[in-house]
Amino acid sequence: MTGPRLALGFTISNGAVEQNLAGVDDDLARRAPKGGGSTVAWIVGHIVNSRVEILKLLGRTSSIPAADLAPYGRGSDGRAVDSFLPLAAMREHLATSRNELAAALSDATDDELARPFQHDRLPLSMAKDTAAVVTILLFHEGYHAGQLGSARRALGLGSAIP
Hints:
This protein has helices at 2-21, 26-30, 40-57, 66-69, 87-107, 110-113, 130-154. It is mainly α.
């Protein structure tokens, strides 16, 4: 029962991501927001990259080529726009990752989600099982969904979520 609940959380987060991308074109997505911060293009790629990492954690694979995600990993340069895919391509990957993750979480058994987990970096080191890791990564995605809202306003677009 835990898997479908986690899937619901990612569905809600994905809705916020999509709303915050409304009206953002490739040119805007590659611009650094006023006041600093990562580009919209990097944030979208980072969300997709994180979803693919969750799939791996669940023992699933993604159809998204790993090379497409190389510029968006943890610690990568959020302003290295020359290495980013066009926003349209990343939005396709966003939809693919949404569908793959929803299916994987909906199909995950309670035993799979209860598998022990160990990591040496906070906050993941706080998680003792797979479900807890996925919960932390759901929060991580929600953070970046909000970051997209801040970035779009810094780029001169209005708030997308009333």
